[in-house]
């Protein structure tokens, strides 16, 4: 029984017509060798730090043996006629070709890798590595094993309707000899892994029917039911090494770089020293001296430190002083909760100070708007697949990475980018800012990270609730050091609370007439637009800022608000915003107007009032929100009102933190992790709790954006409420919001249209 396609060479990658030398790294043996080289180079470069960073109790030799075995078998499943037909679409004399849209492969190649390796297990088990761990890592290297659409399915690969019900394997020829290219793979394993000549009690298959595939899947799943995989961290590390090693090997193979040189000299070996971090500190101090709180952070003796301090008290500078003792010989990853706070932290502290990178999904848009490109990364090759692939690895060679928390904690839920960044995560010190604003799912991921990663870590927050503190202590499993912010700064009387049934426009106008700067925070975008329109009708100098703009427009509105509140800008201003003001706006208002919200959010909003203390308390005006349930429940609104009504005199940051920490709250964060708890399963799932919004493109933009590269699309995306979008057309996975339902202006952003009217 022979397939119609009989290739003289087994390929691992698609043939490109313009590729001059494609045979080596494009072949199955060549690519396998490159992946093992990448994995071993990463391990050799990190050395014992890889063991220590994750608290592994195995030797580096044992770790290397299992990772190499996983890398060796990860693409075995490409030795079949379905896959070889796909990668030969551009080879003229290769028949039959296979086109995925109308003739998909019966099973994915990594599923086939598991099944084929299972047939060779009595030989592969003679490797020094652990076979079952390697098999799971190999099968999950494309993050599609055991789950689909973020949900567990327990499927060891999907069987598709492929137009035929069998798949031919290039293992043995008709005279029962190893197929020439597969024989090369066998010989490579003998050489690289020290395996003996294979002797199997049952010869390997040359064809699988659907029934055969199901039988083998069940055998493997049954074997994993009794699998002793403890510790989970070791399995996670092996999986991450295979995923990052395969990704970098695939990318480097298409360039002129030396893989060893790129991984060692040009990337993960580049770390921080004390002089570089002192430069950041000195530049920010501008001749001043560190506050005692900032000094105490730098003197912390604990591996995990908690910095508890209010808004505007210098936590970020203190964090860099902490890094001056904890991040030497490491990379530093500074994690913020949002893209906006990440960008501000990058600009204010490390841009042009350290060899650094801003890393989040919309970083390119933010930096382009601020004219901060200095490296030529935005050259004409934006459509080049090589440049797009390599973009995932730009952080490997940086000493400092500023990013959203998703970029690190996403690893816990098998998100792709953090796994690509694994060699960086494996040797970094970490700062997590604004921890108090994490939702239960994100906080649960932080707890699992603290449980597994034994690196120097600084957690910063305006407050730590008792249940959070206890959960952190349990996860870390060793002594913590909690460093309080400046008691003097937090004891200043900063706020006077006022609660009215309706907003006091007269007080706002008086403040502006006196040259003040007013921040007005609403709970919904539509409410903010209504307030803005009323302000304009009164002739006030107003700016509108919320999340429902095209991202590139949102960056402009963000920058306009921040610039308007700078001390050198003397013009009075009224900025009307939504929850985006709670963290991403580094400004100091002279009057705050806010709808009642949940307590932690109100405290964050107050952090924008009198931020640069003016030696007296300033007014904060609060009024109710009658739109219960979006985004706050009645209970949350009641608690927010209770907070405001608890204070009749001037209020300090210390009092607010104490009030919040006294709330009876025994929440149980979601700590399930696919990477750590999924056993053999490896699939991505959500890091955060589901939100109210969905990210879309606008129909009115479609003619302009339909032909641009995917990496450019984020600048045109808009978040809108996730309702009735299932039937909308899609472009590159983004729903397209119809023009008859959603309008847009640069001034107001996106707005819903019903019966021809804006609402």
Low-confidence stretches: 18-23, 362-389
- What is the fold-level CATH name, i.e. the topology of the largest domain? Hypothetical protein af1432
Q: Approximately how much beta-strand content do the residues carry?
A: 5-15%
Distance between the termini: 67 Å
Structural class by sheet pairing and helices: alpha/beta
What's the quaternary structure here?
A: single chain
Can you name the CATH architecture of the largest domain?
A: Orthogonal Bundle
Q: Report mean pLDDT, rounded to a whole number.
A: 88
The shape, in one word, is globular
The largest pleated sheet is described as: 7 strands, parallel
Number of helices: 33
Compute the number of strand runs.
24
Query: What is the C-level CATH assignment of the largest domain?
Result: Mainly Alpha
What strand order characterises the main sheet? 7-8-6-9-10-5-11
Helix content: 40-55%
- Gyration radius (Cα, Å) is 28 Å
Total domains = 4
Defining key terms:
Hypothetical protein af1432; six-stranded parallel beta sheet; single chain; seven-stranded parallel beta sheet; 4 domains; 759 residues; Rossmann fold; 24 strands; globular; alpha/beta
């Amino acid at each position: 029984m022979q397939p119609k396609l009989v290739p003289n060479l087994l390929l691992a990658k698609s043939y490109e017509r313009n590729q001059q030398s494609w045979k080596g790294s494009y072949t199955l043996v060549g690519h396998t060798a490159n992946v093992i080289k990448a994995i071993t180079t990463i391990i050799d470069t990190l050395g014992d730090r890889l063991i220590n960073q994750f608290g592994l109790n195995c030797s580096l030799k044992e770790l290397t043996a299992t990772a190499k075995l996983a890398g060796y078998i990860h693409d075995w499943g490409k030795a079949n006629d379905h896959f070889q037909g796909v990668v030969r679409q551009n080879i003229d004399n290769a028949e039959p070709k296979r086109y995925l849209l109308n003739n998909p492969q019966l099973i994915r190649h990594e599923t086939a890798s598991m099944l084929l390796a299972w047939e060779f297990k009595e030989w592969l088990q003679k490797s020094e590595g652990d076979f079952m761990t390697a098999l799971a890592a190999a099968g999950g290297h494309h993050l599609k094993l055991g789950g689909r659409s973020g949900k567990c399915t327990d499927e060891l690969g999907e069987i598709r309707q492929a137009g035929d019900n069998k798949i031919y394997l290039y293992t043995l020829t008709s005279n029962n000899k190893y197929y020439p290219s597969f024989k090369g793979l066998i010989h490579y394993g003998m050489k690289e892994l020290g395996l003996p000549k294979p002797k199997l009690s049952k010869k390997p298959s040359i064809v699988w029917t659907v029934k055969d595939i199901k039988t083998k899947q069940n055998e493997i799943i049954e074997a994993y039911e009794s699998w002793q995989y403890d510790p989970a961290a070791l399995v996670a590390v092996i999986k991450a090494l295979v995923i990052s090693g395969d990704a970098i090997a695939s990318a480097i193979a298409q360039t002129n770089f030396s893989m060893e040189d790129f991984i060692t000299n040009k990337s993960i070996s580049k770390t921080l020293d004390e002089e570089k971090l002192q430069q950041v500190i000195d530049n920010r101090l501008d001749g001043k001296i560190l506050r005692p709180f900032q000094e105490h952070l730098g003197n912390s003796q604990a591996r995990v430190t908690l910095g508890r301090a209010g808004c505007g008290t210098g936590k970020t500078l203190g964090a860099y002083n902490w890094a001056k003792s904890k991040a030497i010989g490491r990379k530093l990853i500074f994690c913020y909760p949002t893209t906006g706070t990440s960008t501000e932290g990058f600009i204010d502290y490390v841009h042009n100070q350290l060899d650094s990178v801003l890393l989040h999904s919309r970083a390119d848009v933010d930096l382009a708007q601020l004219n901060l490109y200095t490296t030529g990364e935005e050259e004409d090759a934006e459509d080049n697949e090589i440049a797009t692939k390599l973009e995932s690895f730009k952080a490997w060679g940086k000493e400092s990475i500023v990013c959203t928390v998703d970029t690190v904690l996403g690893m816990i839920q098998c998100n792709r980018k953090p796994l690509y960044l694994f060699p960086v995560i494996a040797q970094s010190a970490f700062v997590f800012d604004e921890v108090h604003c994490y939702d239960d799912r994100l906080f649960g991921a932080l707890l699992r990270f603290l449980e597994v990663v034994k690196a120097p870590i600084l957690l910063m927050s305006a407050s730590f609730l008792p249940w959070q503190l206890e959960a952190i202590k349990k996860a870390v499993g060793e002594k913590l050091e909690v460093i309080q912010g400046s008691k003097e700064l937090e004891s200043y009387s900063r706020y006077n609370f006022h609660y009215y049934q309706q907003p006091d426009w007269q007080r706002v106008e008086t403040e502006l007439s006196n040259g003040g700067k007013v921040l007005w925070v609403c709970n919904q975008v539509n409410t903010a637009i209504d307030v803005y329109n009323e302000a304009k009708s009164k002739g006030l100098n107003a700016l509108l800022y919320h999340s429902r703009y095209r991202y590139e427009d949102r960056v402009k509105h963000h920058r306009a608000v921040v610039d308007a509140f700078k001390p050198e800008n003397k013009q009075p201003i009224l900025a009307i915003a939504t929850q985006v003001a709670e963290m991403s706006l580094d400004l100091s208002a002279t009057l705050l107007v806010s709808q009642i919200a949940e307590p932690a959010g109100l405290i964050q909003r107050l952090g924008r009032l009198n931020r640069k203390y003016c030696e007296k308390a300033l007014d904060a005006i609060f009024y109710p929100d009658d739109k219960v349930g979006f985004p706050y429940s009645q209970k949350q609104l009641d608690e927010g009102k209770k907070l405001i009504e608890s204070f009749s005199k001037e209020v300090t940051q210390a009092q607010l933190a104490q009030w919040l920490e006294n709330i009876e709250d025994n929440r149980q964060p979601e700590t399930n992790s696919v990477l750590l708890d999924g056993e053999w399963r490896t699939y991505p799932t959500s890091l955060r709790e589901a939100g109210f919004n969905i990210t879309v493109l606008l129909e009115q933009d479609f003619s302009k954006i339909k032909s641009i590269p995917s990496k450019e699309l984020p600048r045109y995306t808009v978040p809108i409420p996730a309702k009735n979008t299932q039937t909308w057309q899609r472009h590159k996975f983004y729903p397209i919001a119809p023009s008859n339902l959603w309008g847009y202006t640069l001034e107001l952003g996106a707005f819903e249209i019903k019966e021809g009217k804006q609402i």
